[in-house]
């Protein structure tokens, strides 16, 4: 290139086109050559490379997609094309049908839009179709595929003549199939009612029981999806599956079953891909971020939470849980700037009167839990005084909640981390005052994170700072005993 430009950028592509023109390449051959260069030299994935080679923005590509399908209101959006381009690392897997349409938009064959990593993640059925289809056009071929014009045109395929009455003869029968369904509104209402009830009951019911009942709901939705429904009913069933699986993953994590949690969250995300619903994506990202953090993957947790914030859903699910999950994730690696930035964003939107009611109360955490999460993040980056203020607010909010709205685990969690904050401030007596009531209770039925934090606190009490203090030694031994008995 004649001057340094960012690889793959618009100036880069313009210079590349000039070089190709100087070598005698016709305009029609440019997109294939540009796409080849972007893939090979710039390491840009094929679907993005072909769109850029066609000089189309995401929104314009979506507009052309809808035009190619013959329905300007078909529903393709720039954000969905972006999600297709992110797959398989993240995003949404494009269907073969979608790839065929995109290939028409970009003026290539659909197989050109798949790289090796894409092929490795394709379902067996799609991979078989890939191998069965005609060979993909090669970018370096002497006669590349023609470029699609600024306004793509529909092509007419030659068909064998048939009697006039045969054309479209089965269209009405095909359309009538869309009215047939194995689901009625009563069934859907019943499924949603069960999900909402179980989400509300989790704070006061044994986790194993809720997990088992949610599994029944998910199995019912999955069984119904094997039949035929109207499109809106299919989406509702997919959303039931997504929400119940995400809640199950959350609860399995509380029980320390992190492998099961990850599998359930993968299932939940798959449901959301087909439901194509931003709120569902928030449910799953919230659950994924929580499970990742408590299973020891703090940075992954932060990134999952940050991605969840990209799905805007208005007031149905506030940003607070995801922002606080992002802060907590970064706190695991003491990334103070990121933690303080996230806490500042949360503070700017925090509504002290916000409860956790409504159909999404399972994910819309209560005030005590919000301030507790803020406190733990601040404590991890050395902000002990600020953390102690958050824990004090969390305690006050917890005690104001009715018994049915309290999550029992919050009492020991607040006590443990308030004790840790006192230790950071060289206040052993203050820490003991928090922990002694905890030692008088049975922690056997508490979630896995309570037992984990008991061990963390015992380790801190056994550290060099408090090693010679009898009170610290006694507390550490008592905490380890409680932690060990809870695991038996």
Structural write-up:
The protein is mainly α. The chain has 23 helices and no strands. Helix 20 packs antiparallel against helix 21 (428-439). The longest helix has 24 residues, at 231-254. It is globular.
Q: Could you list the spans in which at least 5 consecutive residues all have pLDDT below 50?
A: 137-160
Largest sheet report:
none
The separation of the N and C termini measures 67 Å
Using DSSP, what is the number of strands? 0
N-to-C SSE string, H for helix and E for strand: HHHHHHHHHHHHHHHHHHHHHHH
Percent of residues in helices: 55-70%
**Count of separate DSSP helical elements:** 23
Shape from CA axes?
A: globular
Share of β-strand residues: under 5%
Structural class: mainly alpha
Radius of gyration: 28 Å
Mean pLDDT: 84
What's this model, at a glance?
The chain is an all-alpha fold and 488 residues long. Helices cover 63% and strands 0% of the residues.
Give short descriptive properties of this protein.
488 residues, 23 helices, mainly alpha, single chain, 0% strand
């Amino acid at each position: 290139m004649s001057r340094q430009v960012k690889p793959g950028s618009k100036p880069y592509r313009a210079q590349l086109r000039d070089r190709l023109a100087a070598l005698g390449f016709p305009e029609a051959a440019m997109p294939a050559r540009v796409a080849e260069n972007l893939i090979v030299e710039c390491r840009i994935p094929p679907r993005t490379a072909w769109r850029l080679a066609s000089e189309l923005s995401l929104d314009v590509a979506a507009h052309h997609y809808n035009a190619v399908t013959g329905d300007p209101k078909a529903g393709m959006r720039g954000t969905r094309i972006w999600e297709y381009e992110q797959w398989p690392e993240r995003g949404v897997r494009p269907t073969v049908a979608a790839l065929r349409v995109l290939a028409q938009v970009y003026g290539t064959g659909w197989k050109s839009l798949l790289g090796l990593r894409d092929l490795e993640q394709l379902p067996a059925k799609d991979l078989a179709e890939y191998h069965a289809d005609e060979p993909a056009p090669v970018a370096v071929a002497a006669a590349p595929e023609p470029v699609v014009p600024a306004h793509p045109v529909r092509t007419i395929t030659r068909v064998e003549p048939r009697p006039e009455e045969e054309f479209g003869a089965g269209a009405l029968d095909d359309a009538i199939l869309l009215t047939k369904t194995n689901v009625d509104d009563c069934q859907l209402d019943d499924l949603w009612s069960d999900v909402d009830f179980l989400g509300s009951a989790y704070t006061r019911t044994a986790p194993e029981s809720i997990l088992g009942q949610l599994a029944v709901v998910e199995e019912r939705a999955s069984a119904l999806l094997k039949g035929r429904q109207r499109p809106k009913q299919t989406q509702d069933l997919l959303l039931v599956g997504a929400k119940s699986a995400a809640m199950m993953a959350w609860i399995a994590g509380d029980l320390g079953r992190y492998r099961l949690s990850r599998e359930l969250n993968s299932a939940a995300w798959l449901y959301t891909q087909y439901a194509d619903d931003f709120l569902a994506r928030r449910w799953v990202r919230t659950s994924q971020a929580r499970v990742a953090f408590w299973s020891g993957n703090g940075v992954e947790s932060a990134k999952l939470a940050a991605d969840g914030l990209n799905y805007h859903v208005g007031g149905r699910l506030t940003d607070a849980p995801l922002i606080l999950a992002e802060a907590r994730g970064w706190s695991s690696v003491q990334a103070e700037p990121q933690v303080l930035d996230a806490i500042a964003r949360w503070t700017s939107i925090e509504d002290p009167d916000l409860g956790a009611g409504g159909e999404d109360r399972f994910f819309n955490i209560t005030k005590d839990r919000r301030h507790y999460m803020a406190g733990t993040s601040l404590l991890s980056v050395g902000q002990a005084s600020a953390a102690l203020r958050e824990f004090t607010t969390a305690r006050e909010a917890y005690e104001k909640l009715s018994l049915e709205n309290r999550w029992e685990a919050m009492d020991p969690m607040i006590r443990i981390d308030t004790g840790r904050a006192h230790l950071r401030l060289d206040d052993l007596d203050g820490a003991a005052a928090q922990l002694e009531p905890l030692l008088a209770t049975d922690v056997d039925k508490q979630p896995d994170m309570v037992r984990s934090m008991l061990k963390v606190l015992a380790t801190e009490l056994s550290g060099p700072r408090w090693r010679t203090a009898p009170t610290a030694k006694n507390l550490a031994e008592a905490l380890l005993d409680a932690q060990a008995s809870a695991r038996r």
